[in-house]
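debug: dumping io for the single-chain case to check the tokenizer round-trip. Nothing else runs in this session.
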Amino acid sequence: MTRVALPTAPSPAAGWTPELDEGPHPRAQIGYVLVANADLAESDFFAMKPSGVGVHFTRVPMPREVSVATFTAMERDLARAAASLMPGRGDLDVISYSCTSGTFVIGEERVIAELRRLNPRPKATTMLSACVAALEALGARRVALGTAYTDDLTALEVAFLASKGIDVVRAEGLALTSDEEMNRVTPDWLARFARAVDTPEADALFLSCGALRVLPVIEDIEAAIGKPVVFSNQANFWHCLRLAGIEDRIEGFGRLLREL
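debug: decoded output
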């Protein structure tokens, strides 16, 4: 076997000075704390991501069952999970807890406090905070709500929205209890579900749960019902972009990203 001698790397003393630029993501760096069983958020966020924006992920432990008890227990691990996002860097702009139902179970203010406890530099938000911001930006004060959740979780979300001045005029939940089940609901069926949940009294339709495959059909739903649709992953990404100062209008994912 012939061995090829590789050149010795030059030392700094040899006069080599690397040429630096702003890196691969000079516009913004966004970090997401996902629940352990999430299998959709990454692909949804990367589908919406504009050039020059970095999107990064960590996970917080969670058992299979989606319930009040499992979300309540999750609180103790939020700070450590958030602190694991790019801990050796100083350029993370925004961090978001990427779970709608976990936010209203644990409490929005409590979640944000935990995200910032060991990692105070980035702006902190939650998926549910983003959904409320999206509804407010759309001027939607009366909404139809479709969720993946059991009745107790759906009722908690209705109460949370009411505390923000948003009136839920109709609410329907799918009573699913695991991320795996939620991920397997087909986009076409979700489009039919969305049309059935909508009501003329609603200013907008809110489809709640980042584990549902709404993103591929969100524009079809908007066209069918003639009003804006807010979906957890779409709103979360929109909100994080805006918090990071990115104002791009992005086609293909509903009025929220296209116009606001």
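debug: round-trip ok. The chain has two domains: 28-128+235-250, 130-231.
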